[in-house]
Structure formats: structure tokens, C-alpha cells
Amino acid sequence: MAVHRPLKLACQEQLLPGDTLQRKWEFAARAGYDGIELRGRGDFAFRDRLPELRAARRDGVVMPTVCVDMRHFFGAFDPEQRRDAVAQLKSQLSVIAEIGGGAAQTPASYGMFSRRLPPFEPPRSEAEDREVLLEGLAELGEHAAAEGVVLLLEPLNRYEDHMVNRLDQAADLIREAGSPAVRIGIDTYHMNIEEADPAAAVLAAGEYIGHVQVSDSNRFQPGAGHIDWPAVLAAVDAIGYTGHLALECRLSGDAEEAVASVPPFLRRAAP
Amino acid sequence: MTSPTQATAAPRHAGARDRAELRRAAVRVLLRNWTGRSTLPSRSLYPHQWSWDSAFIALGLRHVSPRRAQQELESMLGAQWTDGRLPHIVFDPATPPDAYFPGPGFWTPETAAAQTPAGTSTTGIVQPPVHAFAAWETHLADPGESRRRGFLRRAYPRLAAWHRYLARHRDLGGSGLAAIVHPWESGMDNSPLWDGLLERVTPWPPGSFQRRDLDHAAGGDRPTDLDYGRYLRLAADYRDHGYDDAATPHAFAAEDPSFNALRIVSEHALARIAAETGHDPQPHESRARELTRALTASLYDPGAGLFLARDLVGGEPVREYGAAGLVPLAVPGLPVAGELLATARGERFRLGATRLVPSYDLTGHAFDPHRYWRGPGWFNVSWVIHRGLMLHGAAQDAAALRASLLAAASSTGFAEYVDPYSGEGHGTRDFSWTAATALDLLAQEEAAA
Predict the structure, then answer these.
(1) CA B326/CA B324 separation, integer angstroms
(2) The CATH number fitting domain B16-448, selected from 1.25.40.10, 1.50.10.10, 3.40.50.1240, 3.20.20.370
(3) What does the pLDDT look like over A161-172, one tens digit per residue?
(4) How much is the average pLDDT of A144-153?
(5) Cβ of B27 under 8 Å from any chain A Cβ?
(6) Residue B20 in contact with partner chain A when CB distance is under 8 A
(7) What is the CATH number of domain A8-269?
(8) What is d(CA A51, CA A98) in angstroms, rounded to the nearest whole number?
(9) I need a surface site. Which of A159, A195, B19, B74 has the fewest CB within 10 A?
């Protein structure tokens, strides 16, 4: 009787076998995925893929989101790198809009600084961090809104980013930035490290969540670690989330088998 | 059937979309009331872990997260005393000691001969033993996860010790049935069943204690100060005798049909748990049969067509008709199930015309549709009756009760209890076992479809 929203799953492109998006899609669809999450490299490489992406779309490949794949981000200490990251993201937002997708995801930074590793004190104050992030989110939110898509801010764990680690921090920034085109892109691996109760964190930030990436507690595919998937997926369902759950992880065991194991595993664990 | 007591306007078959939304709302309640170890019955009114609440919560939580449902029961079992009793409240260390009265400072179980586990703070009385049943049902929700965590292997000795405590220390009447020594042990705290028995108890004087329940709920829904004074006297007397069942001069002792019926249901579950974990199920099956015979012989009243509580101080049956007397319907192989079904459908409980099974006789002198356990319908009791209806071939009554319960859970925002006629909600909201029993019935409905 009860209507269960079918769990929509996507898989990041580099995890799929095949040398074209069409071949990757064949594998993905056969394994039970409903979409492919793209990776957006810098130097406008993602824009340069437009012919390939348009052809893939024509051939029926569903590409709902792009996840930024660069070495510097819109929260960088260096102003030049910030400007470039914003320019790259704007371009990626435009491209994903053109190929029928809905969102581009980025962290504030990745691998730039950790307060848990030496030298422990970042070169920029928290207030300055905040100013930089709000400025970037406002500009990116405006561009995303104009393109009719969404910019996703992803909290990373404390070893990978020193600015935005938890959903409540992301929600707080998004509230202040004030753009409805900026949402949180949650990642279950980072949440497992940072959130006292991942399911409760999803409920609390529910209205701001725009995307979900999945990997287990050890960064391997769901099922290879110890995340309480039924609880997390129940929370994601209970906030009314209807988007894709995108697989972003490392693979343990045989790569193809690992990728194919995820859809049945998650659908069994889902409410 | 045109009297004003007839239930009206409850949508009997809500749409699938409504069902899905109800399920999500129930999930939100259980996720929000989770503390990391167990589930609070209510964030405002009941900020600790309650014994039978946990068991009913696990029945719903297993559909959200089998692991959490196991942890819920493990948290309760982790507070077990050395004599085997499971305390009726495990106090949450994160909650201020004065947030609930009577709190940790009142009970002082460290004065008891039987010991509580280090680092836990509990009350010294008990609640109905629904735990083995809940543990087995939780196992069934995901046997793989259960075996991987060694859930039943670890739970079985504690559940068996709990049942052993009841057999060894609580058979105050000599019939084999377990006695309760405080109305709160029935779980149906303020039921009119206990009024006459409580009259013998000298209350603590009003003004000598500060209740906290009235901070969060309307006074008209809650027990009176005089009742509260008596509850405290009984608890203090038991405490002052070290919670020693044999040494306490019990001013209150009764055999409650609901407590014992749930014990039998759990004894059957213990047999299954024993078999699953490589122990002998036979002793549990034998005991379940013996207890079913004792329950029927001692507490069934053919004239009333209902099980009655027995006053062990006065030695007489308690001639008050409560939903506790219908709970034995959930006992497998009950010889008087047909008679009990007729009583459920009769004028005292009006199954099919009431929203939830009323906690007390609709025609009774003390009936009050709003006051705590003196008439309102409670979701856990109706859930148990629903199980009994399914067990004894009354599938249509069960389906109607299920639909009505789900409608009431939805329309009241998971109220603690409801007016049995109007379905109007009372007590606290976002009440955990209301959400849990609704979730389980949604799952049953889905499985049946």
C-alpha cells in the first residue's frame, strides 16, 4: 500500500568500466543505477567536454550532477586560485544546465589545511574564512539561479578541510548567503566522522539538503564498512529528498563487482 | 449504532500517499527521540529510558534501523540488576536529575541488596516483560545483522534471568503468576483497577514533593496529587526494604492479567530465542503453557467474559473491567479467546465503534475519556489487542482497528493517548511508542497487501 519513492542511484563516471559515457551507462543501467555523476576538471576541461556530453545526452545517458575535480577551491587562501575556482564552477554550472543536469558540487577547500594536523593554526582567521566563503557562495548562487541549477556545498571531514565539516555549518553559511540556489551536498563518509548522529543531522538540515553522495565509513562502497545504512536512508527519505544518491568512493575487492553490489545493497537497506 | 459514542469521520482506507507520509512522520519522531543508546518516550515529558516503552519502541524502530532496535533493548538489558530485574526507568545521565520526579535521588538503588550495574542509575520497580518478545521480533527484522552482532546470543541470558526473577521473587500469590507491587509496574499507572487497592495506602502529604509531570501536560489529563502521594509511599516503602520482595510488607500487591499475559507472550519468544542460540527451548515452552493455565484458572472471570486483576492483599478479584483484561487475547492457545473476543466487541470496549481500545470499561463508574489510563485509548495496548485479533482469526476486526489506529496516530501528531470516542489527542505529542506501533502496523499492512 505505502508508496515508496524508488531509490534513485547515480555512480561517478571514473568508477564505471568502459571508455565512453555510453559504454559506462550500459554497465551502470544494467547494475541498477539511474544516472552518472560527472567529474569536473579545471582549466575549463569540463566545458571542453561539451560535444562528448551532448552526444551522451542524445544517447540517453542521464547526468544529474557534476562533482568538482580540481586542486584548488572557492575557499582557497590565494585570491587568484579563488577567482579561478569560481570561474571554473560557474562554467561547470552552465555546462551541467545545458546537458539537462541540475547541480554542481564543491567543498570549501580540499587538502589545503587541517586544524588537526601541523601546523594546526591556519594563516587566515575564522572571520576571514567566513567572509571569503559567503562572498563565493553569493556569486555562485547568483550564477546557478540564472542557469536554473543548484550549487552544492559539501562539508568534508576535519582532515580534508578546516572550514566546513558539519551539515549545521553548511546550513548556517547557506542561510546567511541567502541564495535558494545554494544547497548542501552531503557525503555519508564525511558525516560518519563529523556528525554525532548522522541521521539526526540529516533531519536537522533537511530543508537545505540538495544532494547526497554515498560511501561507507572506510571510504569504500556502501556495504564495505559499518555505517547504519537503514537509519541514514530512512532519514534521507524522511526529509522528502527525491534526488539521486551518488556513489563516490574507493572500491574494495573486484572493481566491477563492487560497483554492481551497491544498488541491491542500498535498495535493501532503504525504507 | 447511532449513539454519540460511535466513531465518525475516520478515513478507513487512507491513500497510499498518506500512508507514505505517515511513515515518514513516524520515522522522524523515532530519529529525533533517539539519544545514541536508546529512545526517549518523549523529549519533554519522559526524558529517560522506560522499560516497556523500549520494547514497544523496538517493534517500530526495527523497521527504521534493526541495529538501533537491538541497541535500544541492549541499553535496557545493560541496566539489569544482579537479581535479574529490569528496572522501569533507566535514567539518562545527560538529563538533569530534577527533570523528572521521582528522579534518581528518590530511588537510591545503591541501598538495595541486589546491585545495579556500575555507572547506571535506575528505579527499583519493574514494568511488563515485553522485552523477550521485542527481542525476537527485532531479530526477525534482519537476522543477518542480528547474528553478525551476536544480538540474541548476548541477550538470551539476560532475558532468561529477567523471567527467572519474576518466577522466583514475584510469585507472591503462589499461583505461578507474577505480582506487581506498585500500580506503575502494570504500565497502566492510574487505572481504576488499582483505586480500591490504593485506598489502604497512606499517602505522602501533599506539599512534601514537587511533581514535574505537570510542567509538560495538562493537570486534567494526569493523576491527582492524592494518588501521587500514595504512589510515592509505596515506592518509598519498597526502597526502604532494599527492594527485597520477600521482606517488604506490601501494602499493594496484585496479579495483573496484562503483565502476566505479556510475560507468556515473551516466554514463547524466549523458547524461539533459546532454539536460535543453541539452548533448550523446552523449559520456556512448558512454562508458557503452565502460565497460560494459571492465568486462565486464576484470573479469568466467566461471568464478565474478561480477565480480572487479583488483589493479593485482600485476596479477592478486582471487579473493575479494564483493557488489561483483554490483553491475554495475544496469548497463543488461549482457551477463552472466543469469549474475550465477544467482550471486546461488547458494550464495555465496543471494538469497531471506538477509535482505539479504551483503557477502561466504557460503562464503568470511573470512566473518563481524557484522564491517564482511566478510559483513553493507548497505542501499545491497541497494538497488542490487534495482534490478538490476528492470532485468533478476527482479521476483519484487526484491519478496522489497524486503520483506526493509523488514522488516530496521524491526526493527533502521535499523541500519547486519545479519547476513545472522538480520537482527540491527549498527553504529550511525538510520543515514541505511538510512532513505533504505527510504523509496525504500516509494515504489517504492506506485507498483507
Answers:
(1) 5
(2) 1.50.10.10
(3) 999 999 999 999
(4) 98
(5) yes
(6) yes
(7) 3.20.20.150
(8) 11
(9) A159
